[in-house]
Amino acid sequence: MKKALITLSLFASSWSFAQNQLHQVLVVNEGFYDYQTGSIVEPVTIGSYDPISQQYQVVDTLENMRFASDLVIDGNFYYVAADSKIFKMDLNTHQEIANVACPGVRNLAIYQDKLIATRGEYLTTYDSYLHVYQTSDLQLVQAFDTITGPKWATQNIVIDGTTAYLVVNNAYDWGNEKGIIGQLNLSNLSYGNEVDLGPDGKNPDNLIKFGSALYTVNNKDWTGTSISKFELTTLTPSTVNITNAIAGCGTSALRDDKITYQISAETSLNNFDVNGMNNIGPVNGINMNFYELAQEPLSGDFYASSTDFFSTGTVYIYDASNTEIHQFAAGVSPGTIVFDIRSSAGMTETITNFSISPNPTNDIITIQGKSTNDVINLIDLNGTTVLSSNESTLDISNLPAGIYFVHINGTCQKVMKR
After folding, report:
1. CB 150 within 8 A of CB 133
2. What are the pLDDT digits (tens) for 69-106?
């Protein structure tokens, strides 16, 4: 994702602090649908976690959706795959921009102005398992039938160059699971070049790119777990069996150069070395049954969710040494965790003769070194001036927690509101 937050033209001697920053963490809470009664007990919700203030809030509820399965960010928007619809949302306001019916939608990926969507559902046969939409208005561009596209339920997507790699697992047809990597040519929207992962590579549940290879975590025929490596240069697969128990749905993620995964119903995490293609032992210090795993790419912090699937959900954050540094209550079944990372490129912070205290702060900041007639402008990360004053103190207690810039006569300094 490429996104410039703000450009401040400061005509003064300055140094650049342009860098990527974690703006928010989006959490898709799948909710609780009672299949016996056919009722939605807990709705699907989207939550936003602020890493600065460490506050979490529900920003949207997707009514009448039985579950949700994916979320991707693209520029100022994000897209949610939920049960029978795809939603386009504003990344900052979380307002719905558009939606389109897509029964059985599973996973999403973005390429330029195209949204790729895979499909599949238990005991349901579709005439198309792969759709392509316009990102602008979610108009359908192409629906691949089972002759020109995947023949079975299709799930995870990884884009590499002008190719979208898809896993075709047919996971909802018990006893007839598949293990296929399909390729969608994004230049001309043609599908083909399927590669079978072999008898031990059936039912891939996750697709991960690392280096020049793709890796799948496979639940096989629900009696064991394997990991397959798919070389992108040669388009050849190899598979290693790792356990006679299943890894569950989604409980695996790339963590640095290892795939961290968990066996269903267990409380320990395991590491798999993608270079040596072998297990390298359990993860020390973390002992809990999880639902979703994700590594935040800037700090390397590891996010892991847990749930009882009907009433509660919690997200735990661990540092590189596996020490829990924070946790927050989310919705029921927090199943997708996505990091909104934005670039502050173009912003400059100037070394000046004024100072700000205290910094960070909860309420009042005092500016020392300003002239009597100097006007202070407080600017947020969207470039909006939220306060203006010629006083030496500013009350920012009513502002949301986050990073702001104190701007005086063409120079600025950063202040953090807790």
Report:
1. no
2. 999 999 999 999 999 999 999 999 999 999 999 999 99
Joined together, the tokens standing for residue 395 give 């009350």
The model carries a pTM of: 0.79
The secondary structure of 38-61 as a DSSP string is TEEEE-EEEEEEETTTTEEEEEEE
Tell me what pLDDT residue 8 has.
32
Residue-range domains of the chain with CATH: 16-343 (2.130.10.10), 350-417 (2.60.40.10)
DSSP 375: P
Tokens describing residue 156: 């995870």
For the four alpha carbons of 134, 137, 141 and 145, in that order, the dihedral sign comes to positive
Peptide bond into 43 cis (omega under 30): no
Lowest mean pLDDT among 2-11, 113-122, 348-357: 2-11
Residue ranges with strand state E in 308-381: 313-318, 324-329, 334-343, 348-349, 355-357, 364-368, 376-379
Q: Provide the strand spans (E) within 220-267.
A: 225-231, 236-243, 252-255, 258-261
- State residue 353's pLDDT score: 61
